[in-house]
């Protein structure tokens, strides 16, 4: 306090708008925007949805992954997101994550690539077809390659790598254990789906003789380097064990409401000391990548579950910023606007009519009285969206090519 303001290369007049840290998306499947609202899958359970779409995703290649990642980053920027992880677990061809990193570099977006994996095809008692699974040696070798090529542990990093076997019903116990050991060796994060659906309980008991959280713990994953997606159906005792172990969780509000019918109890998990972030999840389930919308839905879910005085807009914003940054092990640099943070920030624009009458609390007004879109977005101090317009020269060409790739994947003309 009392120190002079530092000199600035540029001054932006926010015009009285709300300014926040850039929002952080901690769970996504970017390639899935190639199958948004795919009619044969939209009304199924999680397992039905997956088995319908896995064959479609088997045609993924470098170009379609690049295009879908580029579109996802552009969409996220429009919704005030400046950092995202992505759980890329379908690998019908090699080097697809390289294509992702090429896309995020072209957009100028902060990114944590999750080297996902599947080893158990339908022939081995899993859900995916054999075309999209890999053997364990291939997975571990590529994981080490990606860490060496792209993981930047230094302050201000734009790209980092995490290791992310998909789920217990698509990978072997041995790859779960080997991946945890590899993450420890290279000091990188771990990520997987956990306790997302009631069918998962029955599957885990039948195949592994343990509930999902017990299996997760037995595989060596209950460590502070781990964050899990969804985490809807853990028991109170299991929740407390994972919180005590330092495991973080991502709530995916829209996706879980569409697919599972429930979502993680963010308020209770936070009350146990667990870091809880927000994820939009794959575009084929939530069909949107808007972190403002997910943050608002997190607010509504918590109040719906716990009462009108249970959760505030600031608490939801904290989930989408500091909570999400903690999930990614990045809380020293992103998710806040303290000195030393990366210059990732958003100036918001809400409909002027929706804000008419908001006089006592601009943050509550921003989240309750939407919708809101990003007006300016800066990533690492560089302008990526200006007065509502994305500064991406290739965007129109990419969208045109994306439509062609999506049509090919969905089998429509």
From TrEMBL:
Molecular function, one GO term: hydrolase activity, acting on carbon-nitrogen (but not peptide) bonds
UniProt keyword terms in alphabetical order: Hydrolase
Domain Amidohydrolase-related: 18-355
SUPFAM superfamilies per record: Composite domain of metallo-dependent hydrolases (SSF51338), Metallo-dependent hydrolases (SSF51556)
Highest taxon of source: Bacteria
Protein name as catalogued: 8-oxoguanine deaminase
Protein species of origin: Nesterenkonia salmonea
